[in-house]
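Run log // design_07
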């Protein structure tokens, strides 16, 4: 049906916009930039970098990504308000390929209760907004929010009007994750029959996962003519999340004969990108998650193992290496050299510059002294962690803990600040974690409230590293930090200090902005 892209399905990644909207998934600017670089390497077609009018932080992130990431289209979201559209345009303008994405809700429920607008008013606002956006930029996407619960005839009217006004992509969201595959397919076929000019635009699909059907619904839409899929890494997003990019891409690839379409994603980057997003957001990927979960390629039962030894195709429909998971899980140890470490890192999908390699290799050697065997997951954790904690200003030099049954725990820390100060502090607590956290707060003068503490084993064995993720409230906003170590109390201290460092860096950046003369910070 769609003549614009032929058999090519465009992958529109909204991890940095819809994904970031999920509770606990907000990311700092440098983290968004790392995710955007990973998405470029994954070769997605469009990166929705944020909602520029939502906050100055969102605006900065979209503008920075637009200025720095070359290759994919960079898109900014806007409501059908002139102010939002101007902000979105200013933010995406530096991109090689900018796109403005405007949206308005069309369903009766949203018209009545949320917008209090009549149908005519919705069409007028949509058309005016698309025209305004089009006066700035040639690539305009329009979304009819809650499209799947909109009367099909009204939806067709809205879509026809925005195409006439200059929209180049029209997105049909299942905002509430309410539809089912055959119903959604019927809706796309209905639009194909009733919308004038539909063959001149890219028809897009955007599904949420409230009933666990986001991927299935997106694929049904592709069968019915959609040629852009909106999705997020690991399926993160509002409520139950969005269509998972890795799942929908591997479904298109593994069942290419059925779908008959291509997409440009480099599937070998799926696993490293999934790990990166999970480590930055602190949203762990369940072990049994399709495509990128730890067990996705593990064969436990004897019958399956026997089949696998005879021929992998007996129990495998995809090869782990096709999604960037190494089959060998080679074990490195303390005699492994820099070369072997770099090779392994490369095979795991990390391209490290000299400085990053030096830092990660030093960590690897330190860990190899404490731990007999290092698995791929250890290497991944080292690389992610050295990257994340690279920017200080505080470094933990020493941590001493005394704790025991029926005893008050005591923690002492020695911290070094980037400006040269060295602080020693001690505190007591109900247990070793509380004692060490209080000592860190005293030493840095930053008091926070711990909301969540999670620990998981990075690899196998008694000497496995523990990865701690803490969620902390500071001055009314929520922050997350990570730490890894073979000692989980130390991992906890690293995670808490990670948050303290983020808070310090944020305060520093705000001070610098305030000191800068008006207009210098960012246009
Ligand atoms: O779910 C939704 O409807 C959206 C739109 C803004 C595209 O995220
Ligand atoms: Zn959405």
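design_07 sequence
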């Amino acid at each position: 049906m769609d003549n614009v892209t032929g058999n090519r399905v465009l992958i529109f990644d909204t991890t940095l916009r819809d994904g970031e909207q999920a509770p606990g998934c907000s990311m700092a600017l440098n983290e968004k930039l790392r995710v955007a670089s990973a998405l470029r390497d994954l070769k997605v077609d469009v990166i929705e970098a944020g909602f520029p009018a939502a906050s100055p932080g969102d605006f900065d992130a979209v503008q920075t990504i637009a200025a720095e990431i070359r290759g994919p289209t960079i898109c900014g979201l806007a409501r059908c308000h002139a102010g939002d559209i101007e902000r979105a345009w200013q933010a995406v303008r530096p991109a090689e390929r900018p796109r403005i994405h405007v949206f308005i809700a069309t369903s009766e429920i949203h018209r009545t209760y949320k917008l209090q607008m009549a149908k005519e008013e919705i069409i007028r606002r949509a058309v005016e907004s698309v025209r305004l956006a089009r006066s700035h930029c040639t690539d305009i996407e329009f979304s009819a929010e809650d499209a799947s619960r909109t009367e099909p005839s009204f939806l067709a009217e809205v879509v026809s009007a925005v195409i006439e006004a200059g929209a180049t992509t029209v997105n049909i969201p299942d905002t509430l994750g309410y539809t089912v595959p055959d119903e959604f397919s019927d809706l796309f076929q209905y639009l194909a029959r009733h919308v004038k000019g539909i063959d001149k635009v890219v028809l897009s699909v955007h599904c949420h996962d409230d009933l666990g059907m986001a991927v299935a619904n997106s694929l049904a839409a592709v069968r019915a003519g959609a040629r852009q899929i909106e999705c997020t890494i690991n399926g993160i997003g509002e409520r139950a999340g969005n269509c998972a990019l890795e799942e929908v891409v591997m479904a298109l690839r593994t069942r290419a004969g059925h779908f008959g379409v291509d997409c440009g994603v480099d599937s070998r980057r799926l696993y490293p990108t999934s790990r990166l997003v999970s480590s930055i957001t602190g949203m762990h990927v369940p072990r049994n998650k399709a495509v990128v979960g730890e067990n996705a390629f593990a064969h436990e039962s004897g019958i399956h193992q026997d089949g696998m030894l005879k021929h992998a195709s007996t129990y495998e429909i995809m090869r782990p290496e096709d999604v960037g998971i190494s089959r060998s899980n080679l074990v490195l140890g303390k005699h492994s050299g820099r070369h072997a470490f770099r090779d392994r890192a490369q095979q795991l999908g990390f391209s490290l510059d000299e400085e990053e390699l030096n830092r990660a290799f030093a960590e690897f050697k330190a860990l190899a002294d404490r731990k007999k065997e290092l698995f791929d997951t250890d290497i991944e954790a080292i690389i992610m962690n050295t990257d994340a904690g690279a920017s200080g200003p505080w470094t933990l030099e020493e941590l001493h803990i005394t704790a025991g049954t029926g005893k008050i725990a005591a923690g002492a820390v020695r911290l070094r600040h980037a400006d040269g100060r060295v602080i020693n502090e001690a505190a007591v607590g109900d247990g070793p974690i509380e004692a060490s956290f209080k000592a860190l707060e005293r030493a840095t003068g930053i008091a926070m409230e711990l909301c969540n503490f999670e620990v998981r084993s990075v690899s196998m064995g008694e000497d496995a590293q523990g990865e701690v993720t803490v969620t902390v409230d500071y001055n009314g906003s929520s922050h997350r930090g990570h730490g890894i170590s073979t000692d989980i109390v130390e991992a906890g201290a690293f995670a808490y200090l990670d948050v303290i460092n983020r808070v310090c860096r944020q305060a520093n950046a705000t001070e610098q902005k305030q000191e800068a003369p008006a207009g210098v910070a960012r246009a």
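The pocket of 3-methyl-2-oxobutanoic acid (ligand 1) is lined by residues 18, 103, 143, 145, 171, 173, 175, 206, 208 (CB under 6 Å).
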